[in-house]
Amino acid sequence: MPSIPTPRPDGSGGFMVIQYNNTSYAHRLRVHLQPFNTSSWGYVGTGGTLEANPNATFAALVNLLKPYYTSDWAFRMLSLWQNTAGVIAEVFGWTPPTVITGSAVSSNAAMMPDTEYMFNLKTSRGGRGRITLLGANEVSAAQPAVTVSGSSGGSASDQAIVAYITGASTQIVGHDGYPFVGSAHLTCTRNRKLRRRTGQA
């Protein structure tokens, strides 16, 4: 049985599903990738400073996400999906990367279990994509929306994420298969569905 429902096809090479959880909550993040093969589990046509495989991308991204969560949270690659001739299917046989735990020293009391911290980005062809962090217990957004580049806006952690996702070394792409460029529109709100699940007012 697939770990999540098979989604409609898109222009990327596939995606990984990252699960992050503590003892009370579990969330998933879908991250689209450049094409990769299932023999070496490496990306197709890698070179220069680009990451070699999805496990390397997982580690690079999650090491930037972990400052938003305390050490009771753990990140793991739950599943890997490949786009073959327009059809996306889950693939098996890969070795999961090492689980990474959160690194925030303490929780921000203002942040609730239903906090939705979202980086909204655009690709070089005008496509859209986002990185959404649910239940982050250490974020510093003081306003509901802010523009963040790799060097300005938001916090230093916010800037580091945008610099990486729009940089020259990542294999992360948008739904259309093209790299992300420019700045991100960052929002910090409360997720209505999570609010009902967590019993928040």
Describe this entry's structure for a reader:
The chain is an alpha+beta fold. It is built from three helices and nine strands, in the order ββαββββββαβα. About 15% of the residues lie in helices and about 30% in strands. The chain has one domain. Strands 1, 2, 3, 4 and 5 form a five-stranded antiparallel β-sheet that branches. The chain has a four-stranded antiparallel β-sheet with strand order 7-6-9-8. The model has no long low-confidence stretch (mean pLDDT about 85). About 30% of the residues are buried.
Distance between the termini: 36 Å
- Give the number of DSSP strands: 9
Assign an overall shape. globular
Count of spatially separate domains: 1
Poorly predicted sequence stretches spanning 5 or more consecutive residues: none
Determine Rg (CA atoms, Å).
17 Å
Range of strand content: 25-35%
Characterize the largest beta sheet: strand count, sense, and whether it forms a barrel.
Answer: 5 strands, antiparallel
Helix-strand pattern: EEHEEEEEEHEH
Q: What's the average pLDDT?
A: 85
- Look at the helices and sheets and give the structural class: alpha+beta
Helix segment count?
A: 3
Helical residues, percent:
10-25%
